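Aim 2, interim progress. The first record below pairs a target sequence with its structure tokens.
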Amino acid sequence: MILLTIGLASCRPAAPDRAAGGAPPDSSSQVLGLALSPPQEKPAFTLTDTQGRPFDFRKETDGYVTLLFFGYTHCPDVCPVHMSNIAQTLKNMPAPDASRIKVVFVTNDPERDTSTRLRGWLDAFDPTFIGLLGSRADIAAAEAAAHIPPSAKDTTVGAGTGSYFIGHAAYVYACTPDNVCRFLYPFGFRQANWAHDLPLLVAWPNQPS
């Protein structure tokens, strides 16, 4: 298994733990994302969406290609780049295919990311993106369920000013419609590569496993 070191200093993203490590996919799969080894069952956790309703992640995304990312709206680079690339790719896809994909963004900055701020930030990329919030303990539990390294506030930057970074994993998890998380997408994955992979994930039952 290959362990990944992913991140930019400005956003303090954490590297993935062993459970999230991935090996390059077998060439027969065609998918360019990094294959999880072994694949993981879609995690089970419940947080609150931006409308204030409970969101059961496994239940609400059942049968969809699901892209799961933990980040925060004040992130200067990793988070907006991921969201922008995915949003533009979905915009360019045929509507029936794009409708089979759910993008779920979990904030790991509950002190600053209110439901209003999170909804507005996501809407700037794609209004169909799902934003989830919770207490820091709830978010930590969701990270653990997804085998995501725990996020942490960087108190060495902007101490006492309300301006700080969050150390967090810089990759997107991708779960296929059979509710198995099979791939991860590190920061730097190009929009053209998303355009290549997302149709393959939508058609996953017809792809080699």
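The second target in this work package is listed in the same format:
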Amino acid sequence: MNIAFFGSSLVSSYWNGAATYYRGLLKSLAGLGHDITFYEPDAFERQQHRDMADPAWARVVVYPATADGWQAALAQAAAHADLVAKASGVGVFDTELEIAVPELAGPRRLVVYWDVDAPATLDAIAADERHHLRRMIPRFDMVLTYGGGDPVVRAYKVAGARECVPVYNALDPDTHHPAPAIRDFACDLSFLGNRLPDRETRVEEFFLGPATLLPDRTFLLGGSGWDSKSVPRNVRIAGHVGSGQHNAFFCSGMATLNVNRESMARYGFSPPTRVFEAAGAGACLITDAWEGIEQFLAPDEEVIVAGSGEAVADALARLTADDARRMGDAARARILAAHTYAHRAAQVIKVLDMATASSEAAE
């Protein structure tokens, strides 16, 4: 199958939290024998902040962030693709692409809306009676999402989706794995995530709050946008951490924290890529509480679940290095057994094969 995928960026994780998901899933699809072409706009200085070369398993087409640019890229995709996927959050000309891609549907080509932030998309649709996706979602062959579980599936069905299937984040064990600790990332608790409006309040509660409660412990805050943030004295700001340093980041602290954005926590069943990256590195993970965590990691055995900043502080105060190591090892074993991108790619192909069969039967 020739797959044309329109997304934010494959080659840069700069202000691009979906990069790990794209890389892991598309690499595994290529490993099953499918041809991948990834179309990304030259926008947001991502090409100036690449953290990987064009991979051997995909062709990368960087198009100008102009009207002529996206139109030429889509025409190129239409010339060869059996599947055209439009991801949410490309960042430029999203509306235009989401209107144009369904026009490519036909007996020999599937068109898919691939939502990498379904809670935010569904909230936007619900808030705007004139939102273009209200009329466009029913025209895609299916919606695939990287999280959300039954609440997201139900909401997309209400929005007119013919089919909606969650394809969750996962682990690429070749990319995220245990690594030697480095001094620059040493801490008791780390957090890695870009500064975003619906994340910042929760970071204040679940990360900066515990830092205030535990002044003798050390905390490390990684990700873009935090440089101007006022933080307690025992919090160091690492800035943007390239994907090549993620393993060392997770392995250099006693524990690392996952904090879901507010909308993702509300919908549940939305583990961020960081959960799988950290588990793949064998890190001890503390996460805020959200419905569905047990589908991926067992609370108290493979992950520490905390319902408040005070609970994070209490868990960290009681955590020993031996306990952290045991929990990290258990999490890594669980993810390797059931939640790799090889598992997700097999799921995607099964879903696409079913859609293709239904389309051919309808001819």
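The chain has two domains: 2-170+341-362, 183-338. This observation will shape the mutagenesis plan for the next reporting period.
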